Amino acid sequence: MRSSSNILSHNLGELELRVLEALWQRPHLDARQIHEALCAQTPPRRTPGLNTIQSTLERLFRKAYVDRIKQGHAFTYHASVSRGNLLGRMLGDVIKLLHDGRMETILSSFVQVASDLDDASLDELEALIRLRKSQQSDAGVGGDQDD
């Protein structure tokens, strides 16, 4: 069995996710601006210091989650991965880690999570399924074709 640390290599800590969230909301911020944004959202005793934010940004840069541009004496940062892309990658990794070879396990878990969705989200899910089936049909993939 593969180690979870290899599969979940982009597993992010809470602060890293909070920094990414700030950058998804307002791209092209420097460390001080990110610190200010986090201070506005966090009780004072839980607010990380500016040095901690700078270290977190450096880690995110090394992990390729943010890009940076030199602006005078500081860097401005922007997320290099979208929220949706990161979510998809993380979910894919969890599935690879826990998948037992049967699609029923994955689908059952997904349906359980989807039971909390509103009607609009369920409609969107149905549309995505129809689109995927159509793409597979156009490509000649799948077992529902009549010959």
UniProtKB/TrEMBL annotation:
Family as reported in the entry's similarity comment: Belongs to the BlaI transcriptional regulatory family.
GO biological process: negative regulation of DNA-templated transcription
Species, as recorded: marine sediment metagenome
GO molecular function, one term: DNA binding
Coiled coil feature spans: none
Protein name: Penicillinase repressor
Keyword annotations of the record: DNA-binding, Transcription, Transcription regulation
Pfam families registered for this protein in UniProt: Penicillinase_R
Classification via Gene3D superfamilies: Winged helix-like DNA-binding domain superfamily/Winged helix DNA-binding domain
